[in-house]
Write a structure and sequence with these properties.
By secondary structure, the chain is an alpha/beta fold. The protein has one domain: Rossmann fold, CATH 3.40.50. It contains six helices and nine strands. The strands form two sheets. The chain has a six-stranded mixed beta sheet with strand order 5-4-3-6-7-8, with helices on both faces. Helix 3 packs across helix 4. The model has no long low-confidence stretch (mean pLDDT 91).
Length: 185
């Protein structure tokens, strides 16, 4: 999988501001992999196979990174796929999407660093009385620090070197910071 990220230039090296506000020397732009339908399908089939015995009823991911993931994972599992969106600072369902009480839901995301967005989606599913059966992610950068409280499967685990802006050595060196993510912070 790492070769695929390198081949598609989805693993970037430099000075990046992550969605969490932390700074890092490495950034995974999964959209550069998932824009290729054949790669996205291959990766999601592999990840979906890990949940094939779980009787998944629905797949959900946070917008933006989880939209393509939820669609392709749902396709691989033969179930509907939806996504949650942030509205007024809170994850919510829009566009007529619903979760039925007792529905067995798989939460998916392209990259986890702190797990903040995934945790918000898990909370949303539970608020709507859905049962979260697991989390599937392409890249887990948390180094085991982002505990989801449910079974979590990832295709690639690469611990992130992340710093608060105040302690970032790249900032101290004057290296310009880039914010390539999807959320304005």
């Amino acid at each position: 999988m790492l070769e695929l990220f390198q081949k598609t230039e989805a693993m970037l090296e430099g000075h990046f501001k992550l969605t969490s506000g932390m700074h890092s020397n490495r950034y995974f732009q999964c959209a550069l992999v998932t824009k290729h339908p054949e790669y996205c399908q291959e990766l999601c089939r592999e990840l979906a196979a890990r949940f094939s015995q779980e009787r998944v009823d629905l797949v959900i991911g946070p917008a933006v990174g989880g939209i393509v993931m939820s669609y392709e994972m749902a396709r691989a599992l033969g179930v509907p796929g939806i996504f949650a969106e942030r509205e007024a600072g809170k994850m919510t369902l829009r566009r007529g999407f619903t979760i039925s009480p007792g529905q067995r839901v798989l939460v998916v995301e392209d990259v986890i660093t702190t797990g903040g967005s995934v945790k918000e989606v898990i909370e949303l599913v539970r608020e709507l009385s859905g049962e979260v059966i697991g989390v599937g992610v392409l890249v887990n950068r948390s180094g085991g620090k982002a505990e989801m409280g449910v079974r979590t499967e990832s295709l690639l685990e690469i611990p992130a070197v992340a710093y608060t802006p105040e302690l970032c050595p790249l900032c101290a060196e004057g290296v310009p910071v880039v914010k390539p993510g999807s959320r304005n912070i």
